TrEMBL record:
The gene is cobD. Belongs to the CobD/CbiB family. It is found in: Cell membrane. The chain crosses the membrane at residues 51-75, 156-177, 296-315. Converts cobyric acid to cobinamide by the addition of aminopropanol on the F carboxylic group. This is Cobalamin biosynthesis protein CobD. It comes from the Bacteria.
């Protein structure tokens, strides 16, 4: 029920690949997001909008998520062990986002194929944090490839890692941490202090998964017709160019494997942020590069799942 098993990982990934995130199904991350927003408003009314309030927001969100998941599984275990196992698989499924990442990014690329830049910009705004209103075709493709690379770690490999280590409760704890970072972990006037604890905890939770994602991308690159050698070289050379201590690893590895250049400056909330580039422009940043990034994402996902299954099988 609480402990990870090979069957849990396999079933969760299979459900994700077959069904993605059905829009009609309530998703735990939506509830976590509402919990975060409710707490933030409450703490700000109390004047707790500094480091202390941010630490309280971070700790309570993760603790309440863990408590809710553990309590649900415990209650279901009392009713029926089989029901508890099924619920564990369903909770693990909600932690993964491979098909959803593919689906949402493919909508952007489909709009580009129709030469509908307005639709591509609007669809892109749903999956990236940068401003999209004035992006040209190449900038849109760059953003799509970057988000597939980054979210291969945040949305797939990292949850699989924590599901392997700590089961469905651990997977949901990671999703709570990641949701906190995506909502309040910004370096701006509003969240610089209140979001500090959430951002640092997210950095810690992704420390190993981000590097594992890059390694898996390099290792599986030949299986999808891409360059492992160049991926390793660019990963080692450019991972420190990203402002995040973790995101630079999968993005640099993906840039090298694909033979494209990622990174560079973008506008966020109307403010231009100039960032170093990742990779060399050996190949054009086009739709073929996006499709290569998707193949790479799936290859790394399957490899991580097999590693997790093997690890848990040995422990049994």
């Amino acid at each position: 029920m609480f402990l990870p098993t090979p069957e849990l990982l396999a079933a969760a990934l299979l459900l994700d690949l077959l069904l993605a995130d059905p829009r009609w199904l309530p998703h735990p991350v939506v509830g976590i997001g509402r919990l975060i927003a409710l707490q933030e408003r409450f703490y700000r009314r109390l004047g707790l909008d500094g480091y202390g309030g941010g630490l309280l927001l971070c700790c309570l969100t993760v603790l309440l998520t863990v408590a809710a998941a553990a309590t649900l599984l415990r209650l279901l275990q009392l009713l029926s062990p089989l029901l508890a196992q099924a619920a564990g698989v369903l909770l693990a499924w909600t932690c993964l986002a491979a098909r959803s990442l593919h689906r949402e990014s493919a909508l952007v690329v489909a709009a580009l194929e129709r030469d509908d830049l307005a639709a591509a910009r609007q669809l892109l705004s749903r999956i990236v944090g940068r401003d999209t209103a004035d992006l040209d075709r190449e900038a849109i493709l760059r953003a799509v490839v970057e988000t597939v690379a980054e979210n291969s770690s945040d949305g797939i490999i990292a949850p699989l890692f924590w599901l392997t280590v700590a089961g469905p409760v651990g997977g949901l704890a990671y999703k709570a941490i990641n949701t906190l970072d995506s909502m309040v972990g910004y370096r701006n006037e509003r969240y610089d202090r209140m979001g500090w604890a959430s951002a640092r905890l997210d950095d810690l939770a992704n420390l190993l998964p981000a590097r594992l994602t890059a390694l898996l991308m390099v290792a599986t690159a030949p299986l999808v017709g891409l360059s492992a050698g160049n991926g390793w070289r660019i990963w080692q050379r450019d991972h420190g160019n990203h402002p995040s201590p973790n995101s630079g690893h999968p993005e640099a590895a993906a840039a090298g494997v694909l033979g494209v250049r990622l990174g560079g400056g973008s506008f966020y909330g109307g403010v231009f942020k100039d960032k170093p580039c990742l990779g060399d422009p050996a190949r054009p940043l086009d739709i073929a590069a996006y499709r290569g990034a998707v193949r790479l994402m799936y290859a790394a996902t399957i490899a991580m799942t097999l590693l997790g299954i093997a690890f848990l099988t040995v422990l049994q």
